[in-house]
Amino acid sequence: MKKYNIKAIFFVSGDTVKGYANVLKRQYEEGHEIGSHTYCHRSFYKLEKTSSLEEMKQTLISDLDKTEENVKDIIPEAKIRFLRMPEGYYTDWVGEIAMKYGYVTMNWSVAGDWFDKPDEEIIKMFKSAIKPGAIILLHNGRNRGKRALKILEEIVPYILSQGYSFADPKEFF
């Protein structure tokens, strides 16, 4: 990202940021956006099977508050502006809560770095999905960082060679 001066949104889970404080600071200092991925990557798809709508709303609000608090403990001046729900979960009520926080909710148009397929197949899949407005999702946790870097090293030059550019998330505001 730095090599090509590309800015990204790093969606963080609030329960892990304190263990990666230096990484979070570096992302912020390099001009990337810090987004919320809720507190603990809770599955709201599973939660909706056992909880009322009001309980789910309160859980999300609590998760967002705790994530904001943990991020601000590390970077007091940080302003979270984006929310990506775990597993791409989205309903109107999530959008309403996000709006109250001033968040833009994001999902993706190409992802799959977790698939149990050879890297070459995954890279081909990513390349074939590139089009205007594409949103690329990659993961860094659970030993996926090396794979994400390999994918980026292949697709960033490809995307640029196709005449596309990368939008700076700050341009959304």
Automatic annotation (TrEMBL):
GO molecular function: hydrolase activity, acting on carbon-nitrogen (but not peptide) bonds
Domain NodB homology: 1-167
Coiled coil: none
UniProt-listed PROSITE patterns: NODB
BP GO terms, sorted: carbohydrate metabolic process
CDD domains per record: CE4_NodB_like_6s_7s (cd10917)
Record-linked PANTHER family: GLYCOSYL TRANSFERASE-RELATED (PTHR10587)
Protein known as: NodB homology domain-containing protein
